[in-house]
Amino acid sequence: MPDELTPKNKMDPYVLPIAFTTFGEIKRRETKGQIVVIGNRSYDKRGLSLIPQLTRVLCQNEIHELMTTDEVGAEPNKTVDRISTIGFFEITQGGSVAVGEPVFINSKEIGKIVGFDETHFPNHYNIVVISPERFTGTEVNLNINDEVIIGDDH
């Protein structure tokens, strides 16, 4: 339980032990976007603090950053050090995205979301994707306007 309850987290089920009364499958549409900046940085000690929340809403026209990690144990409410930047993408079809959802670039699955970092929020979220090997956008020859899709319906 957090040391200090604030209006922002006092009833957050991801922060407090609030029991679910029902549990079932959630259906959501894909969230889509296009690459607007191609990343080319890797860090071994980045120190990203993944928030406890499992979902984030990404609105049309927002821009967020995609990052890869190969760090075992990366998950919400943990710190992730091994990061490579894929790049920034602009949301063309908004939606709700969740930990565990696959991320595709140009129809190829690059990994699954393991969490969200708010270091630069409200400017943008850092969306962290786990893959067998971390890589930058430059290393996989991304181009401006390449398609990003988040979701199982792809």
Verbal overview:
This protein has strands at 31-38, 42-43, 48-49, 55-58, 63-69, 79-80, 83-93, 95-98, 102-105, 108-117, 126-130, 147-150. The chain is 0% helix and 41% strand. By secondary structure, it is mainly β. The mean pLDDT is 90. The strands form 3 sheets. It has a 7-stranded mixed barrel with strand order 1-7-5-11-10-9-12. Strands 3-6 form a two-stranded antiparallel ribbon. A two-stranded antiparallel sheet has the order 4-8. The chain contains no helices and 12 strands. It has one domain. The chain is globular.
Distance between the termini: 37 Å
For the largest sheet, list the strands in their spatial order: 1-7-5-11-10-9-12
Tell me the radius of gyration. Answer: 15 Å
Q: What class, by secondary structure content?
A: mainly beta
Helix content: under 10%
N to C succession of SSEs: EEEEEEEEEEEE
Average pLDDT metric? 90
Described by strand count, sense and barrel closure, the largest sheet is:
7 strands, mixed, barrel
Total DSSP helices: 0
Number of domains: 1
Shape: globular
Strand content: 35-45%
Task: List low-confidence stretches.
Answer: none
